[in-house]
Design a protein that fits this description.
Blueprint: E1 5-6, E2 9-17, E3 25-28, E4 31-34, E5 41-49, E6 52-57, E7 66-71
Parallel strand pairs: 1-7
Antiparallel strand pairs: 2-5, 3-4, 3-6, 6-7
């Protein structure tokens, strides 16, 4: 994910999951989406982001692979 702050609105999120030992989990106001750990594929999500803070994390490696997206 390249943006750190975005405006509220509808977005298309493309996740290119290229590893069978990682996933991508997006959690925030009204959103709780994740890829499957063993899957190696591309996911396309259409999301409506509201004002607030969203976390993204690799669940198996949550202590080191994580970040924050602010919607304001």
């Amino acid at each position: 994910m390249s943006a750190k702050t975005v405006k509220p609105g509808r977005y298309v999120v493309t996740v290119r999951d290229r590893s069978a030992i990682h996933n991508f989990h997006l959690i925030g106001p009204g959103v709780n989406l994740k890829t499957s750990v063993p899957a190696v594929k591309t996911y396309v999500w259409r999301v409506a982001l509201e004002r607030g803070t969203y976390r993204f994390v690799c669940d198996p490696h949550s202590t080191i692979m994580k970040g924050v997206l602010r919607v304001s």
